């Protein structure tokens, strides 16, 4: 028998897809954006408007800071950043993040409180895996960033959705949080400035979130990858300010504020002056997971102290001016479109959530259908939102 015939006759035992992986990946933002790009009419001469995800580098007005580029080049050429790093990350990078966060907190964060990650999505992966004890559940915002659901589902962590309230500037429904929580609830997630709603939470609202978490005995995961991307009436306030009320895990990175999402550098920080997270071995577990997962690039970590120290204040101010102008134009233009309403003017991040009135449209079944046809017919890529009749875009 020829080899081909023998191979064909063999009973191969692999090939069944992991259903959890399929379900998780199909709901990821990247998968959705990829599917929308696949529907584009490539004969259309018009340039694609890439509004489906928060990648500022896709636009010429958001070039990386020269100081960041110089720091990265110097770190790569120095020959000092070619080795494996420890599981928690390069010590100098951890110290730089700790000092960066401490400037806005009423207590000091140390390098030992910080773990480096390969971007904020990696930080989400780490935290969902660390919290996935048997029977545990985590509370996630709705509308929300779908990576949380994907990673929680993949590691078998139950998730429950609390609402963000559009008529209250997308604030957290704290009564809903209390109603959802039970004895197995371990954490709640907030995103501030918010993706996908474009809101920024006030000091008073964050204080109430912390009080609710303390009452329930849960930690707060504060996704602050858009930290300081605030251009409305409310300034950015880090959730870690309230770490003395309830333990806070702060997640951040350089992708948005420094306009370099492809550099894939983020962090997880215990902003927890009472040391509850360390006592409960959360940070120990984070480092343990990092030891068996992907590493952030060492020379990007090596560049981080200079990136943080040397980026000119004018760079950030200019970026916020551009975002504020773009948000204003978007909000005003949306008012003129009969089938779309925007419940809250965007004040931060790179997103706005709008509601689609399907009764005004012929042949549109839901938000996914709308986004698909918009991509194909107009070369504009936006994303369907968590709600079946809503979309969000940046």
Describe this structure as you would to a colleague.
With 394 residues, the chain is α/β, with parallel strands linked by helices. Helix content is 38%, strand content 15%. The chain contains 14 helices and 14 strands. An eight-stranded mixed β-sheet has the order 2-9-8-7-6-3-4-5, sandwiched between helices. Strand 13 and strand 14 form a beta hairpin. Helix 4 (66-77) runs antiparallel to helix 12, helix 6 (120-131) packs parallel to helix 7 (147-154) and helix 6 (120-131) packs across helix 11. The longest helix is centred in the last third of the chain and has 23 residues, at 313-335. The chain is globular, with a radius of gyration of 22 Å. Residues 387-394 have low confidence and may be disordered.
Please outline the major beta sheet.
8 strands, mixed
Low-confidence segments: 387-394
Bin the strand percentage. 15-25%
- The quaternary organization reads as single chain
From the helix content, strand content and strand pairing, which structural class follows?
alpha/beta
CA distance, first residue to last residue: 60 Å
| Rg computed from alpha carbons, rounded to a whole number of angstroms | 22 Å
Widest sheet, order of strands? 2-9-8-7-6-3-4-5
Structure summary, number of beta strands:
14
Mean pLDDT: 92
The share of residues in helices is: 25-40%
Helix count equals 14
Shape: globular
């Amino acid at each position: 028998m020829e080899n081909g015939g023998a191979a064909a006759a063999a009973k191969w035992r692999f090939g069944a897809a992991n259903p959890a992986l399929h379900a998780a990946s199909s709901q990821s933002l990247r998968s959705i954006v990829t599917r929308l790009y696949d529907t584009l009419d490539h004969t259309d001469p018009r340039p694609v408007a890439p509004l489906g995800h928060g990648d500022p580098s896709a636009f010429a007005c958001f070039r990386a800071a020269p100081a960041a580029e110089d720091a990265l080049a110097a770190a790569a050429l120095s020959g000092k950043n070619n080795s494996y790093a420890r599981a928690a990350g390069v010590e100098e990078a951890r110290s730089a993040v700790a000092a960066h966060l401490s400037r806005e907190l009423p207590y000091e964060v140390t390098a030992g409180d910080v773990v480096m990650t390969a971007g904020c999505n990696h930080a989400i992966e780490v935290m969902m895996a660390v919290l996935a004890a048997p029977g545990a559940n985590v509370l996630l915002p709705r509308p929300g960033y779908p990576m949380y659901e994907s990673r929680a589902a993949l590691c078998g962590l139950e998730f429950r959705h609390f609402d963000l309230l559009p008529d209250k500037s997308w604030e957290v429904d704290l009564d809903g949080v209390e109603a959802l929580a039970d004895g197995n609830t371990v954490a709640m997630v907030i995103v501030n400035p918010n993706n996908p709603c474009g809101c920024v939470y006030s000091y008073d609202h964050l204080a109430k979130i912390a009080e609710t978490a303390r009452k329930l005995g849960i930690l707060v995961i504060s996704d602050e990858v858009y930290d300081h991307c605030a251009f409305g009436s409310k300034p950015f306030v880090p959730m870690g300010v309230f770490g003395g009320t309830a333990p806070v895990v702060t997640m951040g990175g350089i992708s948005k504020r420094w306009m370099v999402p492809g550099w894939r550098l983020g962090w997880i920080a215990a902003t927890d002056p009472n040391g509850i997270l360390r006592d409960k071995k959360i940070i120990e577990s984070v480092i343990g997971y990092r030891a068996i997962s992907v590493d952030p690039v060492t020379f990007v970590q090596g560049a981080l102290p200079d990136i943080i120290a040397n980026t000119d204040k004018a760079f950030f101010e200019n970026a916020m001016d551009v975002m504020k102008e773009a948000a204003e134009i978007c909000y005003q233009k949306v008012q003129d479109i009969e089938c779309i309403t925007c419940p809250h003017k965007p004040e931060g991040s790179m997103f706005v959530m709008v509601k689609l009135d399907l009764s005004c449209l012929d042949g549109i079944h839901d938000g996914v259908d709308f986004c698909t046809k918009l991509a194909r017919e107009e070369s504009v890529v936006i994303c369907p939102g968590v709600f079946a009749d809503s979309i969000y875009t940046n």
